[in-house]
Each structure stands twice: as structure tokens, then as C-alpha cells.
Amino acid sequence: MHDPLVAVVILNTNRREDTLECLDSLAQTDSYKRQRVIVLDNASTDGSVAAIESRFPAVQVIRLDENRGYAGNNNVGITEALNAHAHWVLVLNEDTLLAPDCIARMVNAGEADPQIGIVGPLILHYSEPEIIQSAGGRMNVRWQAWHHLQNAPCKAAPATPFQVDWVSGCAIMVRRAVIEQIGMFDERFFYYWEETEWCIRAQRAGWRVLVEPAAQLWHKGVQRNYRPKPSVSYYDTRNHLLLMRKHGAPLAAWFVTTGQKLRTIVSYSVRPKWRDRRDHRDAMIRGAIDFLACRWGQGPLT
Q1: In terms of C-beta distances under 8 Å and separation of at least 24 residues, what long-range contacts does 247-254 make, across chains too?
Q2: pLDDT value at position 30?
Q3: Within a 13 Å sphere around the CA of 158, how many CA atoms are in the beta-carbon half?
Q4: Is 205 within 8 Å of 178 (Cβ atoms)?
Q5: What are phi and psi of 43, to 5 degrees?
Q6: What is the tens place of the pLDDT at every residue in 91-124?
Q7: DSSP per-residue string spanning 101-170
Q8: Looking at residue 277, what DSSP letter applies?
């Protein structure tokens, strides 16, 4: 039996060197040959397309006509992957480097059980190669989400695949049958919380979500000193509320979430030490207003 075809979808926006490094690491995945790489270029002006086509002629480059965010842009690549008859679709950030056996180990974990619909790798900090950035995600009954084992040493991860609530959109591999059943990313999210919502949707349809800790990659973004922009506060606020409404979060979760967001807004407003966070306060307020007004897609702060 042939290995299943894996289509790797990478979104690039003026990140030529990062994307080339990522493609270099994919080219070294000697233990898994049946892969097709699709790069979506979001109107880059740094020579990305020419560089990719010159160095990696086998890579398919799709020039995007409009910016539909992480969700909508990647949906273009997912559609192309399905048209190419891919059995698994790996949505991958351009600022990642994969271990040579990463894809093979993810595929082996996914193929072990037909009910496994989504597989993620162990994501490590690029600047601290032995420190975990994400071992999948957890979500509690109050609908608060966090990265499992974040900033723990690599050896803290279990030795065998384990079930999680969601997988980071930095590297998320989804079975074709899952996409055919539940659809692609919800484009209303544009950016942030979309991968969590996708995983919740898959689990509600009966699929399992796993992390294979033996599959490893290194992510340059979201390091320990990561300072998100106000736009992240906007999308985090709006899209968290959208996710809760879409999936029918209980009233207790609404009380906790709205209470936490209100406390943060008040702290950013009145506490002197948070004066430099007032642009984040304004972004959160705008995100809440846009949620109530059902304004989705690209926000005002992108």
C-alpha cells in the first residue's frame, strides 16, 4: 500500500527568507516522499515568488488576489490540496523548521486509527530548541484555552501520542475526510481562534485530535518575550466570543469570560502601570462591539 499523499499548505506574506528556510527543511524530509507543497503568496513585494520558483521549482505557488486572513487564505490552499487528491492536509506556518521525520511520524500517528482526524507535532521554540512552545491545546469547562506544556522542557512531553482539545495553527494536519465532512476554516474569524474552532467542530463530529510528540518542529514566532500587537487583542476578544456563541458555551462560561475581559479593560484604564496598554484596551472594546454587531472578517487594526 502506498503512503498517503500529504499536501503542505504554507502562507507567505513578505517573509521570503523564513519561507525559503521552511521549504529547505521540507526538502530534507527524506523519510516521507509523498508530499506536495503549496505556497500561497499574499501580495508579497520582497521577491518571494521569484525566489521560491527559482530554488524550489516543484513547489506550487498560488498568488492570492485578496487578503482573506489566515483562515480564508489557507482555505485557498486547502481547496487546491483536496483537488490534488491529498489524503492529509498540513497547514504550516512559514516561520517553522521541521525535523526530517516530522511528517512521517505525524502520518503514522494519524493512520494508526481511522477516527484520528487531526494531528499536531510537538512545537518547540526556535530560540530555545529544547523548550516546548506548544504540545497541543487544552480548554476547560469555562472555555478558557491554553497551550499544553508551554515553556516546559522537551523531556516533559509524553513518549506516545496523546489526545488534546485543539492543535496550534502553526502546524495542523487534517484528514481529508474531516474536511469533507465539516468544511474548512470559518472565514469569519480571519485570524486567531480559527484552528481551535476547527478542532472543536471536528471533535463534535466524532473525530479525535492528537499530538504526536515524536514529530517535532521549531517555530520562530511566539517566543517567551512575545509582545502581541493591539490587533491580537481585537481578534482575541471578538473571535473568542464568536467561538463561544457558535458552539453554545454554557452561561457560566459567558460569565467567566466576559468578567475577565471587563476586568482587563478596567485595569488597562485605571491602573498606572498599564498606561502603555490602553491601545489594547481600545482594541478589546472594539472587538466586543464588532462581535455584538456581527462584523466579521478583517478588523480595523490589521
Answers
A1: 247/197, 247/200, 247/201, 247/204, 249/143, 250/141, 252/141, 252/142, 253/141, 253/142, 253/143
A2: 67
A3: 12
A4: yes
A5: 55, 40
A6: 999 999 999 999 999 999 999 999 999 999 999 9
A7: THHHHHHHHHHT-TTEEEEEEEEEESSSTTBEEES-EEE-TT--EEETTTT-BGGGS-SS-EE-SB--TT
A8: G
How do 60-63 and 35-41 pair as beta strands?
parallel
Closest alpha carbon to 259 in 288, 279, 231, 228: 288
Please give the grid coordinates belonging to residue 114: 481511522
The three grid cell numbers given for residue 159, joined into one nine-digit string: 513518549
pTM for this structure? 0.95
- DSSP states of 214-257: EEEEEESSS-TT----HHHHHHHHHHHHHHHHHTT--HHHHHHH
Question: Would you state the cell numbers that stand for residue 64, as one nine-digit string?
Answer: 492570492
b/e 58-92 (16+ beta carbons within 10 angstroms → b): ebbbbebeeebbbbbbbbbbbbbbeeeebbbbbbb
Q: Nearest CA to 40 among 15, 3, 4, 5?
A: 15
Q: What is the pLDDT of residue 274?
A: 81
| Cell (9 digits) for 2 | 502506498
* Model confidence pLDDT, tens digit, residues 228-248: 899 999 999 999 999 999 999
Predicted pLDDT of residue 1: 53
CA-nearest of 37, 32, 33, 30 to 12 is 37
Helix, strand and coil percent figures for the chain, each rounded to 5: 40, 25, 35
Q: Which residues of the chain have pLDDT under 50?
A: none
pLDDT tens digit sequence for 129-145:
999 999 999 999 999 99
Helix axes 16-27, 48-55, angle to 10 degrees: 20
Q: Which helix (H) or strand (E) holds 179?
A: helix 176-182
